Amino acid sequence: MGTAMQADADIEGIYRKHRREMLAMAAAITKCPNRAQDAVQTAFCQLCASGRQANGDQVAYAFAAVQNAAVDQKRALAGGAQPLANLEVEADPCPDPLWELIAGEDRRLVRGLVRSLPRRQREVVILHLYTGLTFGQIADALDAPLWTVASRYRRALNHLRESLHSCEWPRPRLPR
User: Fold this and answer.
1) How far apart are CA 42 and CA 47, in angstroms?
2) If one looks up domain 97-166 in CATH, what number appears?
3) Domain map of the chain by residue range?
């Protein structure tokens, strides 16, 4: 009984620490805040009901459970979506001073550039920047090798950097 109580406490801790990021990921998949909340709740209810712990990284396992529940929500509504295939950048990223400087048109430009990335690169960028997962957690969630995830991220950032340098857009001035 003690092990089940510990598993519930671990799951609750993961929920309390990562719920905002999980809701953002689920909302990006479902395109609906209510369905995103349902997906997170469903995933955590299933994790608690199963009473077992993941063999690897529990945080990545919980993110994968939420991702699967969000995809199920979307499938129930639309009749067949693929996991993370049409992931959009809708939620604000994890708190970061740089993102606070980018506003209005600039943010739309960055979102458009992220949307233009190849699907697998876009997945890694969103999971890392917008949900705060580590590359190891992303690798577990996507069932991909760690170095593949890191390579996708690097290629995506290089593409974004080149695209931004070729754009004429006002850059914010930093106070001195």
Assistant:
1) 9
2) 1.10.10.10
3) 2-78, 97-166
